[in-house]
Amino acid sequence: MKSMLDRFMGYIQAGKLCNQEDRILLAVSGGIDSVVMLDLFISAGFDVGIAHCNFHLRGEESNQDAAFVEAIANNYSIRYHRNDFQTEQTASDMGISIQMAARELRYKWFEELRQDQSYDLIATAHNQDDVLETFFINLSRGTGIRGLSGIPSKAGKIIRPILFASRKEIVEYATVTRLSHREDSSNASDKYLRNKVRNKLLPMLEDQNPSFRKSLIETITKLSETEKLFSEEIKKLKKKLLIRKDDRIIIRIPELKLVESRKTILFEMLAEFNFSSASINDINDAIEGPPGKIFLSPSHRLVKDREELILTPLVEEEDRRYYLDLSENQIFDPLDLEWVVVNFTDRFKIPADQNIACLDLDMLDFPLLLRRWHKGDYFQPFGMKGMKKISDFLIDQKVSIPDKEKLWLLASGQKIVWVVGHRIDERFRITAKTSQIIMIKRTSTDLSGK
């Protein structure tokens, strides 16, 4: 039987995870998995350094972990890097779980450290049991085939070189080689889902079928191969169905309706934008319904328009206000606008351009106000006798919901003068009594501002 070290080197070579010349940053918590990984790298003669995160989640126990890992680094005479995080505060500030915050902090720091200290790769100590646990966690939460196809041995600059080994084999190796390690007391608690899977579900399934772990790993390997083929087809469909336009992504509904297994395809297209399975089910149902429905993920918004699904990033937009003064002739923020005053004569012709507003100067009170539109705003559209709500006007003009939210209005006092890029107000139009005209031109077609 091959030794643990032989299997370690064989796994690295088969997966082309790293070369002997690479400088590798090892994520070492002090637990048995990372301590064994460190020992294997040292025994194989790699050039490594240690990175330890103190998340300060277990009081003095966290500090003892840090001291233990530093002692190991000194014992091996290798580089040691440590970072202390206020994890609970970060989780609160970001509105995410403590586990998610710890993950974000950890991997962000690892990458910064890799670049700053000229490491080639980052190694983490995920093992075969982590693959099984992750399978059931993803299955319980709802996932696509990717979530059931295991943990990749290499992703970008991150390698996982002991995925070949079960936790039982890791414990046996540590026992034989007399490696000291730290025990995380929280691992015994069933407070976290992963611990419930590890401590209850997996032992129960193994009791029913002693070869369960081997069988499931084989199944996950097959799913991983299937996922690679599936991903190639999804890439082709994304290229065909997703239209990128400025800051938005458009999915044409007529083309989407022609796709088989539409719900599955939607899941694969929208999961990267953080939409949940439940939301994607609702989006799929809304395709057959009327326009106007809005769906939100933590990072994006999807609007069901008449013939399109419109996907845009979530942006916190303040109610910004800007002013146009007669003493100036141009602004660049939030829109590129320029204006000029001319005398009205019989020769004057109003340009047939929605990006140019020609207004009776004497009817205006300066400075003019440039602002976003609000519900309840109304004006008298050019050519009409009565007043009309802006919202109704935009519906008549078939303006999409994302474009509505990027709309700017120009106002004189409390009265709307121009729905920028669409129509002026009848009350400020040029008449036979007009003596001077102010021509305001939008030179940029970006409605969103800056």
The radius of gyration computed from the alpha-carbon positions, rounded to a whole number of angstroms, is 31 Å
Please indicate the percent range of residues in DSSP E strands (runs of 2 or more): 15-25%
CATH topology of the largest domain: Rossmann fold
Q: What is the count of DSSP helices, taking H or I runs of 4+ residues?
A: 14
Give the full name of the CATH homologous superfamily of the largest domain. HUPs
CATH architectural label of the largest domain: 3-Layer(aba) Sandwich
* Termini Cα gap: 65 Å
C-alpha geometry: elongated
Which structural category fits the helices and strands?
Answer: alpha+beta
Compute the number of structural domains: 3
Low-confidence stretches: 446-450
List the helices and strands and how they pair.
Elements: H1 4-15, E1 23-27, H2 32-43, E2 47-54, H3 60-76, E3 79-84, H4 87-94, H5 98-116, E4 121-123, H6 128-141, E5 154-155, E6 158-159, H7 167-176, H8 193-208, H9 212-241, E7 242-245, E8 248-252, H10 253-257, H11 262-270, H12 277-286, E9 294-296, E10 300-304, E11 308-313, E12 321-324, E13 330-331, E14 337-343, E15 356-360, E16 368-372, E17 378-379, E18 388-389, H13 390-396, H14 401-405, E19 408-412, E20 415-419, E21 423-424, E22 436-442
Parallel strand pairs: 1-2, 1-4, 2-3, 4-6
Antiparallel strand pairs: 5-6, 7-8, 8-11, 9-10, 10-11, 12-16, 13-14, 14-22, 15-22, 16-19, 17-18, 19-20, 20-21
What does this protein structure show overall?
The chain has 450 residues and is an alpha+beta fold. The chain folds into three domains: 213 residues, HUPs (Rossmann fold), CATH 3.40.50; 68 residues, Uridine Diphospho-n-acetylenolpyruvylglucosamine Reductase, domain 3 (2-Layer Sandwich); 122 residues, Phenylalanyl-tRNA Synthetase, Chain B, domain 3 (3-Layer(bba) Sandwich). It contains 14 helices and 22 strands. Strand 1, helix 2 and strand 2 form a beta-alpha-beta unit. Helix 2 packs across helix 7, helix 6 packs across helix 8 and helix 11 crosses helix 12. The longest helix has 30 residues. The C terminus is likely disordered.
